[in-house]
Amino acid sequence: MSLIDISSNLLLIAFFAYILGTVLIAGSIKRNDGAASRAEKWGKAGIVVAVVGFIAQLGYFITRWIYAGHAPVSNMFEFTTAFGMFLVGAFLLIYFIYRVKTLGLVALPIAILFISYATMFPTDVTPLVPSLQSHWLTLHVVTAAIGQAILAISAVAGLVYLLKEVDPKQKSKERFWLEAILYLCVVIIGFVVVTLTFRTMGYEAEFTYVDKNGMEAEIVYNMPALFGMNEYELKTDGVMEPLVELPPYINAKKLTTVVWSFIAGTILYLLYRFIVRKRICELLNPLVKKVNTNLVDEIGYRSVLIGFPVFTLGALVFAMIWAQEAWGRFWGWDPKEVWALITWLFYAAYLHLRLSKGWEGRKSAWLALIGFAIIIFNLVFVNLVIAGLHSYA
Amino acid sequence: MEKVKCVCGHENPFGTKICGKCGRPLTEEAKAQKVLDMKYDGSAIRSKTYNKSIIDKIWNFFSSVKVGVSLIVITLIASSFGTFFPQKFNIQAATEAEKALYYEQNYGTLGKLYYELGLSDLYNSWWYQILVGLLAISIIVASLDRGIPLYKSLKNQRVKRHESFMKKQRIVAHGPVTEGDASKTLDLIAEKMSKLRYKVRRDGNALLAEKNRFARSGPYINHLGLIIFLFGLMLRFIPGFHVDEAMWIREGEIRAIPGMDGYYLENEKFILETYDNEPTRAQIEQGVSKIAKNYQSDVKLYKQPEGAVLGDTENLDLVKEYSIRVNHPLKYDGYSIYQMDYRLNEFKSMTFGLTNKQSGESLGTLTIDLTNPEKEYVLGENTKVEILNYYPDFSGLKDGIPQTASQYPNNPAFVFKMITPDKPEGEISFVSIGAAPVEAGDNEYKMTFKNVETRNVSGLAIKKDVTIPILIVGGIVFLIGLAIGSYWNHRRLWVQQLEDGTLLLAAHTNKNWFGLKKDLNVVTEYAHLPQYIDQLEENDETKREGDDVE
């Protein structure tokens, strides 16, 4: 077995370990009513499995690093996977400070979603273009990702806080948005499901189209085209014709993927609602019932305190040093850079509001979730939609 | 302004909320609180005290956290607008008109609007810069407003605090010792707290254990760092503080380096390497057949000796030989030269033969240097070729006149005048690549294309920035301040042995109550202290730790 195969297998082990860890932790909470000691055992086992998963993924990371000759953080698959790993690492760090297992109930599934999302992108090792051939790649990206992962724990804590505090039986704005967040998680599952489905089917539809510079170009859809590129012409027989043609400055292929993900996610969500007949937040509410909300609130704050300096160092300072080294300008207003600055400004606002305006508890929890949304936006939207220096695969 | 005199006799500055000496709440507001607001230790904050003159009002505006946060949020939202479409400086278009057109062509009406609103150059707009300036003022004013009183009050802390101060802390304990001799309790506390690296001070029956007071300075240090950084950025507006030039240099050329007076650069070779890997899925999806591995310009840096004539490239002193690659700029004398761009296989010279159309007889060949063509090429007695017109980048005819798109020899075209013994008055021919020559009349001779030599061109950027050290200092100060403020917490424990033999304890931290409580648990057990309570925790949730602890 070659190094890259070992690496992939380790990632697979980590993936299943995170799933098992989630189940065990959930089990420990569910069973807490009767036999406390047994619940304790389940919970301990859950953490142990999560640690094993983390070590396995660290193994994936290191073996892939050795195989590729550079830190595996250079394309969408690699970065997103690494982010999932750092998220689990950050959870474990916070766990060993505060011993709140319940956070794992949110943190591990998010890591699982991240890794599944990552594997929808090309997973092969790509050689580095000249601008990426620098030790700053490793330093900048890894530090920034660790910072973001620790910041993300505040969103994890925020979600736990809100799942407990927001009454799932009472109609409210908060309940609506909370459910909306959970629905979006289902949409990500929807994305994974449709991608895998059409990939297994081997679906391919070739088009020619006229791009925004007026040049003829080719594009291959791996899902039935809902939207067609500008002046498209279908080249493959027996596949679906696009429903709508879009102007040249919108990437119809990406939009098709997004819409398919929403369709699949919505079907999944409705199916769930039909079977369980409860909102997701109502389903999850009992699992977090025993959490000490004051402590969770403090964990949320603490993770911002720990993560913010790391993020500043990695995403801004190291980024500036590298940009100066590579292009002779430490700042270029590249969309990714701007969104890192926006993330930074946002958490700066969070800290000031918390310190001076006493925004704690619910307000703080919502802010943490918005912060995470900005991080995700920067990872997904800025990379895939807004073109710039950082647009990977 | 009048002083506020406390019951204990201490005179506090006007506006003080908590007496600086004994800790008694002074204002009605403070007296009414169940848990005292310990922000800035209750010292008099200028902005919270004066609001009469116009200066007060301006000061209060900028020192307000609400205003500060609003400015942060406005900057944040404004910044995001600049990422909708590419910024103007990242667009490959020469003129302003072309740039305007770019937005409309690529992004439709929205793009046009984006350009017209100036969002395409948002970060250089006056209003964006004013926004950052306001933020800077807010940082300075707010830091001075709170930092100085806080510093004073922390410096003059007394050990003994009044009961009303202690009972209004978030964490309090009151009661007899749980075990042993109460007379030794303060010694035990002092001993344990010292072990936990607290600084312990005692005053009769009172004790103050304090740790990491410096952590309170964190926010002020990081704000100072930010101000230094912003100051550095401001300096860049002054001309001469930074050089930002670009140059194209062909292989074999020696050129004066723009922005770097007295220095010359010779481009020996430009190298482009690609990987020879099997195309990956990502490559196929993006239609990239080859991935670049290396862009490199092998150069020699020369310096002109003192007193040399400008432009004299004969006598140059070699300073440095270097291979400029991406991520590896050539650095010299504060300047850095970066590999930015390249053009492959630019035409260097073209060789033509002068031949008789009928017989095919050749009267000789000539090689034209395309960047520096001669006026005429003499091939023999009474035989020469004149170049009447040269179009380095021929782009077609406009009103019958040949046009050139640029000065780069991308598509050379010539108007030749061929003078031969047969035709001493000369024959005129227009020659361009890939087209039959256009002749004035019926020529006997023609220019036949023999071959072309090419060379590569390196695109380099020349930068010098004297503000960088200031930015580095600002960045380091900021990070240090941030770390101090985030990773250390100021913790205090006040203890007093009351007349009736009971103990009164109070504790405070600026951040991380969980950590403080851990310390308290240790000392409570060691010195048999009464159990503390957290006055902000609701009664049904007095469980102090996570769900793991039974």
UniProtKB/TrEMBL annotation, chain B:
Membrane topology: Multi-pass membrane protein
Main location: membrane
Keyword annotations: Cytochrome c-type biogenesis, Membrane, Transmembrane, Transmembrane helix
One GO term of the biological process aspect: cytochrome complex assembly
InterPro entries: Cyt_c_bgen_Ccs1/CcsB/ResB, ResB-like_domain
Superkingdom, natural source: Bacteria
Compartments reported by the entry: Membrane
All copies of domain ResB-like, residue ranges: 65-432, 442-520
Extent of the signal sequence: none
Residues passing through the membrane, by range: 58-81, 126-144, 220-238, 466-488
GO CC, one annotated term: membrane
The name this protein goes by in its record: Cytochrome C biogenesis protein
Lineage, highest ranks first: Bacteria, Bacillati, Bacillota, Bacilli, Bacillales
